[in-house]
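Retro notes, item 3 of 5
We never archived the inputs for the adenosine-5'-triphosphate complex last cycle. Fixing that now. Sequence and ligand:
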Amino acid sequence: MSSMKTISPSQLKSNGNASASQQENGFVDSLSLLHSERAVQELIQEPLVQGTDDHLIEFSEAMQTVAKALRQVAEAKASAQAEAAEWKRKYELERARNLQLEHKVPGNELWAKLQNWWTRASPDNAVGIIRLFLPCLVCWEIWKERNEQGSEALSFGEQNGNGEKADNTEDQPVLLNQASEQSEKCCGKNGICSHEVLRDGEPYCNSSVVQNKIMRKASFKLSWCCKGEKSDQHKRDVVSFERGNITTAERSSKQIALKWESPPQTLLILTKPNSTSVRILCAKMVSWLKEQKKLYIFVEPRVRVELLKESSYFNFVQTWQDDEEVLLLHTKVDLVVTLGGDGTVLWAASMFKGSVPPIVSFSLGSLGFMTPFHSEQYRDCLDSILQGPINITLRHRLQCQVIREAAKNEYETEEPILVLNEVTIDRGISSFLTNLECYCDNSFVTCVQGDGLILSTTSGSTAYSLAAGGSMVHPQVPGILFTPICPHSLSFRPLILPEHVTIRVQVSFNSRGPAWASFDGKDRKQLAAGDALVCSMATCPVPTACLVDSTSDFLRSIHEDLHWNLRKTQSFDGPRDP
Ligand SMILES: NC(=O)c1ccc[n+]([C@@H]2O[C@H](COP(=O)([O-])OP(=O)(O)OC[C@H]3O[C@@H](n4cnc5c(N)ncnc54)[C@H](O)[C@@H]3O)[C@@H](O)[C@H]2O)c1
Ligand SMILES: Nc1ncnc2c1ncn2[C@@H]1O[C@H](COP(=O)(O)OP(=O)(O)OP(=O)(O)O)[C@@H](O)[C@H]1O
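Structure as it came back at the time:
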């Protein structure tokens, strides 16, 4: 037996501490903990035998290596799954585009083949007759289909939104579904990206009805402007190295301004439900925008029904029939107006899975942290916004994806969800502590044992994250807030991580109960042991119009809405000796 080394009690204690500190971080699972505790018990009771110690230490080190390797495999799997989901999305988009192109080409190829058949076909043999007959049949089918499409398009213009015979097709609404069907035929299942609808001279839809009804989107330019001057400040290197000194670009106000290059023509108005004051304002705003500004107005189906109940005058208002058509909204809407509170802003953002038109939020809620515009002055506000330029805040969103442990491959992953405020992972109705293993770009962060965890955007820093003890962060600051909910530890302080990281939160296999994820306070999903939530910054931010500018609006909100650091001023009764 090899010579045995005595372990001093302090060494034993430090080993014990090492495993204790690993427990805090959720590094060591309960099984290995049990082993090491039992091993320690045996060591204390029996005379120290050096060979056993060495063996134990080697065993413990091997266990840690295995645990680390397993964790790395799990992390690699999660990031591979997230990446696969992203590639799948891009592939499907590309495939839809290619299909659409093929759809255009067969017609030409087919005509070429038909001509070829026609010239080669000779009626003096059976094959020739078939060759002659078949192309005519195919031609007839194509002509019939095109003719049907043409007559359908014409009928759209002759019907109003209620399917009745219209007296004047000029003002008849083209329901988004009709436009989108035409657009779908021209542009593929996933619709088209906004930049395609800006392309000059190449109408994105051939149908005459759709073209003259849905105008092309207004184009605009975003630029940095410093201290009020409207300069196109070009992005400079963040860090420059001159004469041995590393410097960063000078700090100047990075207010972003939106300047219309063509006048906006189509507006979407979203309203908070079950509010009489909102309904009244909506009716007034819609008629003013139609009469004075000659704009096209989209509203939700619920709102169109409410307006038509009020008066059939509102028949010009347009809407959609199902979620499929909502996906096309960003190709038609130049500006979104919300009438409600913060939740209505969150609702508006959630309607756009990709790029989001600028949002102008009128305050008709109770708090209204993100709704700076006063509804009483809606005419002046909208006048200046339609005119431009507009100071905007680009509010970044988090893209969240649930990765199920049971998922066999990346095709079983669920659709990513975008949040403007935050995603929370909490214990739901379970009475047990959560046990969430958190990773940042595959580096282990910590194990959250408490009521849960909030991953918040800087826009959401003044919402749930604030209530849980997180910092308030200016919405233009790029970052992700990592805020625990009632952590059962005296040392767990909130973090602010960079915007470029990918955060993965996995429900530990040792968790005593499931966890629940909720997205901007809604759509709760249960997470079982081993399930993970992968979050990263989404590519499309939510541009919200500022009353003054990003910083003034933010400071006004924390002063007026949250009464931040509101305190009686100390009375001044003359200078005093220090
Ligand atoms: N304990 C809490 O503070 C708590 C609990 C649950 C949800 N929330 C927040 O409510 C949001 C959902 O809002 P809702 O209006 O749909 O539900 P809601 O009607 O319950 O509103 C919750 C409150 O949060 C305020 N709020 C929302 N976003 C905000 C923001 N970015 N900054 C400051 N305040 C904000 C709203 O004005 C409202 O007063 C969630 O995203 C979450 O941030 C907070
Ligand atoms: N267009 C909409 N359709 C369906 N639900 C909506 C719509 N707009 C808002 N909501 C929901 O209605 C609820 C209340 O909306 P909102 O938060 O704007 O009003 P509020 O709570 O009175 O104002 P605040 O959020 O400022 O306190 C929110 O939970 C929101 O998700």
